[in-house]
Amino acid sequence: MKKYSLPEPEVAVLLWTSLMTMMEWNKKEEMVPEQAVKHLRQYTSLLSA
Q1: Which of 5, 6, 3 is nearest to 14 (CA)?
Q2: What is the model's pLDDT at position 2?
Q3: Which of 14, 6, 8, 3 is closest to 49 using CA atoms?
């Protein structure tokens, strides 16, 4: 963030948007929350940084 002078909130939005667009979401709405949790678990270390 410091290298490119990006504010932390902007980095968070960019990161979240990127993670969410990487996934092809299920068409059944009731399946999406479970699918999202499984997807985001892979990136917990990145999200906690």
Answers
A1: 6
A2: 67
A3: 8
Identify the domain containing residue 14 by its residue range: 8-47
Q: What is the mean pLDDT of the chain?
A: 89
pTM here? 0.69
Give Cα 6 to chain centroid, integer Å. Answer: 18
Is 3 contained in some domain?
A: no
Q: What is the rounded (10 degree) CA torsion for 24, 44, 42, 4?
A: 70
33 part of a folded domain: yes
With beta carbons less than 8 A apart as the criterion, state whether 19 and 43 touch.
Answer: yes
